[in-house]
Amino acid sequence: MAEHGSSTARGIADATGIPLPTVYRIAQELIRADYLVHLRDEKRFALGYKLHRLAVGLHEHLGIPRAVREEVHALHRDLGMASYLAIHRGTDFVVVHVSDSPQAPRLSPLSFGFHESPHATAFGKAGLASLPIEEREAYLADGPLRAHTDRTLTDPEQLRRQLEEIAARGIAWEHQEFVPGTDCLAATIKADDGMLLGTVAVSAPVAAYAGRVRHIEDRLRACASRAGRAYRLGGHHA
């Protein structure tokens, strides 16, 4: 519904695999709670107004200090790469700010498979590396790891060693593991107690990193450090 503006019950059933009678039952519950509205003349369902209040609450919770946005913009400008800020909650993360340009476009898509396969992205690897050992092991043991490209790291033992290195260095690489031809690099933003708050990251074609790896890593670490300081100081939102 969010993607298309509205949807028939059959369209929802086809998209989700939920049986049509169940779609009608769930839709009625969501209508009563104001999360959906029924467009009777069109026989379609659309998003309800209460979702706006939820979105406002989420954006306030994830509020981005102005100084952090400026850091991400500067990262894009200085490196000529698409630059990102993600907020983390364990293995879950949401990209809340992107700075890109026609010459350095963002990853596409940032939706399908992106959050479901943290082992295949720099953002996700940073999140996995920050987990307590038992939670990290539970993820590695939870069935086969999905391969998005022929370079996706799916061997649990190899991934375990990589996550240990990321935990020690605070920086995560992803080499063509999610999008062929594209490398990504993420640096962690930590709270005073060491908890992972988020990551700043860049993505670019593989050739863009040639001869610049050390410089890009150093620049990304500096950006993450300043972003962390802005969060800890409670920077102003705008």
Description:
The strands form 2 sheets. Strands 4-3-7-6-5 form a 5-stranded antiparallel sheet. Helix 4 packs antiparallel against helix 8 and helix 5 crosses helix 7. It has 2 domains: 48 residues, no CATH class; 170 residues, Beta-Lactamase (2-Layer Sandwich), CATH 3.30.450.40. The chain is of the alpha+beta class and 238 residues long. The longest helix has 20 residues. The mean pLDDT is 88. The chain is 41% helix and 20% strand. It has 8 helices and 7 strands, in the order H-H-E-E-H-H-E-E-H-H-H-E-E-E-H.
Search tags:
single chain; 238 residues; alpha+beta; Beta-Lactamase; 2 domains; five-stranded antiparallel sheet; 7 strands; 41% helix; 20% strand
Shape: globular
SS element count, helices: 8
Fraction in helix = 40-55%
Described by strand count, sense and barrel closure, the largest sheet is: 5 strands, antiparallel
CATH architecture of the largest domain: 2-Layer Sandwich
Structural class of the secondary structure composition? alpha+beta
CATH topology of the largest domain: Beta-Lactamase
**In terms of per-residue confidence, which ranges show pLDDT below 50 for 5 or more consecutive residues?**
none
Give the N-terminus to C-terminus distance in angstroms.
29 Å
Rg from alpha-carbon coordinates: 20 Å
The number of strands is 7
Query: What percentage of amino acids are in beta strands?
Result: 15-25%
Integer count of domains: 2
Major sheet: order of its strands? 4-3-7-6-5
Q: What is the CATH homology-level superfamily of the largest domain?
A: GAF domain
What is the H/E order? HHEEHHEEHHHEEEH
Q: What is the average of the pLDDT values?
A: 88
Q: Please identify the top-level CATH class of the largest domain.
A: Alpha Beta
